[in-house]
Design a protein that fits this description.
By secondary structure, the protein is an alpha+beta fold. It has six helices and five strands. The strands form two sheets. Strands 3-5-4 form a three-stranded antiparallel sheet.
Length: 203
């Protein structure tokens, strides 16, 4: 008995059901998602990335940060993300509505970065951490990104944008100044704040 038509039908049905479940239904579910607008503050969440933050996202990708860090906070009961302080709520689809591709990440060699800008708002902290992770996180296995900075001698006043190195990590009073790409990456990391309360993210 020739079962070729049955096999072909099975393949077509499998593809159709997969397409419906993974593409069409989610697209239908989220088609009405819009930013939440705060009329008093004239702001919206989420807002599309622009300027240095947008370029910093490209630096984040080409430096391979997404291979060791995720940007998705799991809900309570599905891991210890909130308990670890990686976020105050789980991330939801609306958080990513202006992102393409979405940088959810594939591995957590390092902590989740969905809210790193809220946890560490300091520009200097991010600069020191990228320049040499041992300065801010002793024992870290994260590689150094010191090539995104240039070293300058301490001046009076210090150069614009300079970050003061701790004495144990400097020689003869030196500062570090981010390159253009380094500054863009700093701005992107500081912009990561998905703590805005959304109705669908209630625990």
């Amino acid at each position: 008995m020739n079962r070729t038509p049955l096999v072909i039908l099975g393949v077509i049905l499998t593809i159709a059901l997969s397409l419906s479940g993974l593409v069409l239904v989610p697209n239908w579910q989220f088609q009405d998602h819009k930013p939440v607008v705060n009329k008093l503050a004239a702001t919206q969440y989420p807002a599309p990335y622009t300027g240095a933050v947008l370029h910093g996202r490209e630096v984040y990708v080409d430096q391979g940060c997404l291979y060791c860090h995720t940007q998705q906070v799991r809900p309570k009961g599905y891991g210890g993300d909130i308990k670890r302080g990686w976020g105050t709520r789980r991330t939801v689809a609306r958080d990513y509505m202006y992102e393409f591709p979405i940088l959810l990440g594939t591995n957590r060699t390092g902590p989740d970065l969905a809210n790193i800008g809220a946890r560490q708002p300091s520009r200097d902290w991010h600069g020191l951490h990228l320049y040499n992770p041992q300065i801010t996180s002793a024992g870290s296995i994260m590689p150094r990104f010191d090539y995104l900075f240039r070293t300058v001698k301490a001046g009076d006043p210090p150069p614009k944008g300079a970050i003061v190195l701790p004495p144990a990590f400097q020689s003869e009073g030196t500062h570090i100044v981010p390159t253009e790409r380094g500054e863009q990456l700093l701005e992107y990391l500081r912009a990561q704040n998905r703590s805005f309360p959304l109705p669908e993210a209630k625990q």
